[in-house]
Amino acid sequence: MTATIALVDDDRNILTSVSIALQAEGFLTRLYSDGEAALKALTDNPPDLAIFDIKMPKMDGLELLRRLREKSRLPVIFLTSKDDELDEALGLAMGADDYIAKPFSQRLLIARIRAILRRTEPSAPGAEGGAEAQGPLERGRLVMDPARHRVAWDGKPVTLTVTEFLILETLAQRPGIVKTRNQLMDAAYQDDIYVDDRTIDSHIKRLRRKFREADPAFDSIETLYGAGYRFSEE
Question: Does the structure show a pLDDT above 50 at 32?
Fold first, then answer.
């Protein structure tokens, strides 16, 4: 079935350009120029996924997400200002599924959308390899639940974006095995989306920072210079 994506942004240029790009990929789109107008529509007739700009007049993206989460688990991607980590962290803690910083690649945004839709679509009954059939992944103090997109370290929850989750899952599936940047890019960015390999380094840095908020001594993601990264099971 064709997925429907709702776009909420007060910048009509972004609404138009992103809508055209999504429609070219086969998505249906609904456009809203402010949070107040979007809230009722998203609740009464939910799309498959929504994209919110954080900085909007009347009702910003954070308030829109807060009110939406009172009634819905609709997948949400935030558009944030570059390096606005406070908004990113707050949005993820409130239940956003991912974020992407402006200015952004439309191809990268489409890749994130597809990754989230794959995560949230229900598995067919009896299907092999579905998230429900897979069950939680436990590696020492790390527990990952792909079906619910939840991560815990030593019993403490750690909030990850979809891309961060996919990278960590790839590393944790085979502890001690080195994964190259290209292998991690293939796991996190499907559909022939090109990203610079240093993007993986940035994600690893953010993963470490998030886990160190739960455990300052966290050192289970190891760098092997010139080779890649590996997960060390404690």
Answer: yes
Q: What is the mean pLDDT of the chain?
A: 83
Q: With helix as H, strand as E and coil as C, how does the chain read?
A: CCCEEEEECCCHHHHHHHHHHHHHCCCEEEEECCHHHHHHHHHHCCCCEEEEECCCCCCCHHHHHHHHHCCCCCCEEEEECCCCHHHHHHHHHHCCCEEEECCCCHHHHHHHHHHHHHHHCCCCCCCCCCHHHHCCEEECCEEEECCCCEEEECCEECCCCHHHHHHHHHHHHCCCCCECHHHHHHHHCCCCCCCCCHHHHHHHHHHHHHHHHHCCCCCCEEEECCCEEEECCC
Between strands 98-101 and 76-80, the pairing is: parallel
- The structure's pTM equals 0.66
Residue length of the chain: 234
Taking residue 94's Cβ as centre, other Cβ atoms within 10 Å add up to 17
Sign of CA dihedral 43, 46, 52, 57: negative
The confidence score (pLDDT) of residue 30 equals 95
Do the Cβ atoms of 8 and 56 come closer than 8 Å? yes
- pLDDT at residue number 130: 42
Read off the pLDDT of residues 102-137 as tens digits, 9 standing for 90 and up.
878 888 888 889 888 877 665 444 444 444 446 789
